[in-house]
Amino acid sequence: MDPIIIPDEETYPSDTADRVYPPEYEGHFSRLLIKREEILSRTASLAELLHNDYRGKRPVILCVLKGSTPFYINLLEALQDLTQGYYMEYIRVKSYDGLETTGRIKVEGAVPNLEGKDVIIVEDILDTGTTLSHLIPILEEQSKASSIEVCTLLTKRISEPQKVKAKYVGFSIPSKFVIGYGLDYNELYRDIRDVWIISQKGIDCDPKSLP
Ligand code: XMP
Ligand code: MG
Q1: Which of 50, 196, 201, 209 has the smallest set of CB atoms within 10 Å of its CB?
Q2: Which band of pLDDT confidence, cut at 50, 70 and 90, is reported for residue 6?
Q3: Cα 82 to ligand 1 centroid, rounded to whole Å
Q4: What separation in Å is there between the alpha carbon of 18 and the centre of ligand 2?
């Protein structure tokens, strides 16, 4: 199933009713991109796809911390509704420093033992694919998974080809830096219900100036 395309141009002008975020973030976002309600409905469709593909199996649903957490929780609940069995695992990976991908990724902590398991990596966003192009070989070699697929909430439409293809994708989004619904900019903005494009004020914000 193809991802839902979020166009480059504004889809819905955000009105004040949409501005559901801590008040100290006012002015930190430039465009409301995807509302939580759309994310939840898309997540239910992705769970159906996974259930069709993994029926009778117990895949390991692997959460890539921290950004994927809200998507992960909602995906697991949607799988529960479908009576799909699964195992839960977590991995912590760091690649971004501010707006720039560092090109290096670091697994922080232990790599889970996934020997013989069908693994579904749950990501918040696929950008260049650098993170997953490093993580997948680590999982293949160190964890001995028997199969690995990627389920990402978002994929960015970037000009160069992505280094990794995801089989399950929620939304295709413009090539902008986005935050909210677990996605952060220097650890801020994970605490927002919707996905927004960050503004210059949001980029310039000193976390120490916030409560
Ligand atoms: P790559 O380029 O490795 O990027 O595919 C994937 C990882 O980088 C982070 N990332 C973002 N985080 N807003 C974010 O908050 C973004 O627009 C963005 N783009 C990439 C993210 O952690 C992801 O796992
Ligand atoms: Mg991430």
Answers
A1: 209
A2: very high
A3: 30
A4: 25
